[in-house]
Design goal:
Helices cover 23% and strands 37% of the residues. It is α+β, with helices and mostly antiparallel strands and 449 residues long. The strands form four sheets. A six-stranded antiparallel β-sheet has the order 3-2-1-4-5-6. Helix 3 (125-140) packs parallel to helix 4.
Length: 449
C-alpha cells in the first residue's frame, strides 16, 4: 500500500492536471485501503476475506460551475481522460454561487497534530482466527447460550490524501482492528434471544480481551430471555450507551449546514439558545489520540480543533462546510467530510456527551416505573419536526432497579423535549466513534405492543 506522502502526491498530481486542462480551481481525494476479515462459527473457521482498493476523486470548478468524477483506474491515460471529462462536465453544469474551495486564508499549514492513528502493524490471518475463536468460545461458555451466530476479527489500514489548487496538500494513515461475537440463548420451546458485543481500536494493543467481549455477548443474550411486556404510559426512559449514542446522531443531523440552509431542521432557530438541560456538555474532539474518528484536517483542508457543540445546555455552533457557511454568511467550522465522489458534506469526529455527576444506580434510583432500553428498532425519527417514535427492547425499571426483560414496545416523544429532559450518568467510556454515558430522558411515552 502507498504511504501518506505518496497518497498526497497522487491527489496533488491530478489537481495540477485539472488546472492545466482549463479548470479554474480543483481539489482531489486519494484513498487506499487493505483489510483482512476472519469469521468463525461453532469453533470452526468459516471464512477469510481480504480486500484492497485504491480510488481517486476529483472535483473541478469552471467559474461557479462544478463537476465531480472518480475512478479506480490510476493509469496515466485514464487520469488524463478523467480530467478532460470532469472539465467538460463542469462547463455544462448549472451555476452555483455558493460553490468553491475553502477560504485560502483558513487552510491548514505546518505540521499536523500527532494523533497516533497508525501502529504500522501486520497481523496474520491465524492470529485473527484465534482471537475470533476465543471470543466465540467465551460467549458460548455462558450458561444459557445455546447457539452461535459466530465470532469475527478484522484488521485494516488506510491512507487518505487531499490536495487543492489553492495551496493545501496533506495525507495521513490509520489502522483499525475489530473483534465481535454474536450468540443465541434459549431454545425453540421456551423462546430464543440473540445479542452481541464488539470492540474496535486504532491500535491492536488497545483492543479489548477476546474473552471479555465474548462473555459480554453471552450474558447480554441470556439476560434477554423470557421477555414480558412493558407497561404503557408516560414515564422515564433510560438509554443504554449502546443506543443512547443515536440521540447525538439526531442532534448532528439537525445542526448540519445542509439542514440549516434548506430550513429542514427542528433546531433551525436554536443557535445560542438552551436545547439541553443545565450542565449538559457535548464535545467533538478530532485530536483525541488514537481516536476512532480522529483526523488532522477536515475534508476541505481546514485545520480541526476540539469544539464545544453544547455548553451548559446551550447550542453553540452549527456544523458547516464552506458552501453552507457562505450561504449563511458564517465561517466554516472544520467539519467538512469528503468521500471519493461528490463534494463535501459535514461530519463530526470523536463526538461525545460528557459524563454527569451521578452513577447509574442513582440515576434510576427514584424511578418507580420506567424502561431501560438496550435496543431500538426502526427509523421513526423526523428531523424536520423532531418527532421521535421507535420500537425498542430492554428491561423494566421498578422501584429503582432493573427487573425483567421486556420487548415489543414503542418509545415516543419529540427530540426538543427529549433533549431538554435528558440527564447523563457518570459512566462514560470511549469505545465507539460517538460515545455517551447512560442517559435518562423523563416524560416519554411508552406503549406496549
Amino acid at each position: 500500500m502507498l504511504n501518506p506522502d505518496q497518497a498526497r502526491d497522487r491527489a496533488a498530481d491530478i489537481v495540477a492536471r485539472a488546472t492545466r486542462s482549463g479548470a479554474d480551481a480543483a481539489d482531489a481525494v486519494f484513498a487506499a485501503d487493505a483489510s483482512l476479515d476472519v469469521s468463525v462459527r461453532l469453533g470452526a473457521l468459516e471464512d477469510i476475506g481480504r480486500s484492497e482498493s485504491a480510488e481517486l476523486g476529483l472535483r473541478v470548478f469552471v467559474g461557479n460551475r462544478t463537476a465531480s468524477v472518480s475512478t479506480s483506474d490510476l493509469s496515466n491515460d485514464a487520469l488524463d481522460a478523467l480530467v478532460d471529462r470532469a472539465v467538460a462536465m463542469a462547463r455544462e453544469a448549472p451555476e452555483d454561487r455558493w460553490a468553491g474551495l475553502a477560504p485560502r486564508e483558513r487552510l491548514m499549514h505546518g505540521a499536523p497534530p500527532l494523533l497516533d492513528l497508525d501502529d504500522g502493524g501486520v497481523i496474520a490471518p491465524a492470529e485473527l482466527r484465534d482471537a475470533a475463536l476465543a471470543a466465540e468460545e467465551a460467549a458460548r461458555g455462558v450458561a444459557g447460550v445455546t447457539n452461535s451466530e459466530g465470532g469475527g476479527a478484522s484488521a485494516s489500514r488506510m491512507v487518505w490524501g487531499l490536495a487543492t489548487s489553492h495551496g493545501f496538500a496533506g495525507a495521513y494513515a490509520a489502522t483499525g482492528y475489530g473483534l465481535s461475537a454474536s450468540v443465541i440463548a434459549g431454545t425453540g420451546d421456551t423462546g430464543m434471544e440473540r445479542d452481541y458485543a464488539h470492540h474496535s481500536a486504532r491500535r491492536r494493543d488497545h483492543l479489548e480481551d477476546p474473552a471479555a467481549i465474548g462473555r459480554r455477548a453471552g450474558e447480554r443474550a441470556v439476560a434477554r430471555l423470557h421477555p414480558g411486556r412493558a407497561t404503557s404510559g408516560t414515564m422515564p426512559v433510560v438509554f443504554d450507551p449502546r443506543v443512547g449514542a443515536s440521540l447525538l446522531g439526531h442532534l448532528t443531523g439537525a445542526i448540519g449546514g445542509q439542514s440549516i440552509t434548506r430550513k429542514t431542521s427542528f433546531l433551525l432557530d436554536s443557535l445560542g439558545t438552551r436545547v439541553f438541560g443545565e450542565g449538559v456538555v457535548i464535545r467533538d474532539d478530532p485530536h483525541r489520540p488514537h481516536g476512532l474518528r480522529s483526523r488532522p484536517f477536515d475534508g476541505e483542508g481546514l485545520p480541526v480543533s476540539p469544539t464545544e457543540i453544547v455548553e451548559n445546555g446551550m447550542l453553540e455552533t452549527w456544523l458547516l462546510d464552506s458552501a453552507s457557511a457562505r450561504q449563511l454568511g458564517l465561517e466554516p467550522t472544520g467539519h467538512a467530510a469528503r468521500g471519493i465522489g461528490g463534494g463535501p458534506g459535514v461530519s463530526t469526529s470523536n463526538l461525545y456527551l460528557a459524563a454527569g455527576p451521578s452513577p447509574v444506580a442513582t440515576l434510576i434510583g427514584d424511578i418507580d416505573d420506567g424502561v431501560f432500553v438496550t435496543e431500538v428498532i426502526g427509523q421513526g425519527v423526523n428531523l424536520v419536526t423532531g418527532d421521535y417514535s421507535r420500537g425498542a427492547a430492554g428491561f423494566r425499571i421498578e422501584q429503582g432497579r432493573l427487573t425483567t426483560p421486556i420487548a415489543e414496545f414503542t418509545i415516543a416523544g419529540n427530540l426538543k423535549d427529549m433533549f431538554l429532559n435528558l440527564t447523563p450518568a457518570s459512566d462514560l467510556e470511549f469505545r465507539y466513534g460517538t460515545n455517551v454515558p447512560t442517559c435518562r430522558v423523563d416524560g416519554m411515552t411508552v406503549a406496549s405492543g
